[in-house]
Design brief:
The chain has 69 residues and is of the alpha+beta class. It has two helices and three strands, in the order αβββα.
């Protein structure tokens, strides 16, 4: 996560993973010891409902608007 610029430090990456903000493919990862292979690196993303993701997008002026119908 540090190499992908999703976290600044390893400690921060550890905390974000434990809190459930990261997914690999369709699976939410909460174990910091989860091994991500090179073929899986492209599928590491934020969980859609992550408040941390929303805060980062808002900071970067890339807010995703969702309308509940």
């Amino acid at each position: 996560m540090v190499r992908m610029k999703m976290a600044e430090t390893i400690k921060q990456a550890h905390e974000v993973i434990e809190q459930g903000h990261i997914r690999v493919g369709t699976d939410t990862i909460t174990d910091p010891a989860f091994l991500v292979t090179r073929s899986m690196e492209d599928f590491v993303t934020w969980v859609d409902s992550s408040k941390l993701k929303a805060k980062i997008l808002k900071y970067n002026d890339k807010v995703e608007f969702r309308f509940n119908s």
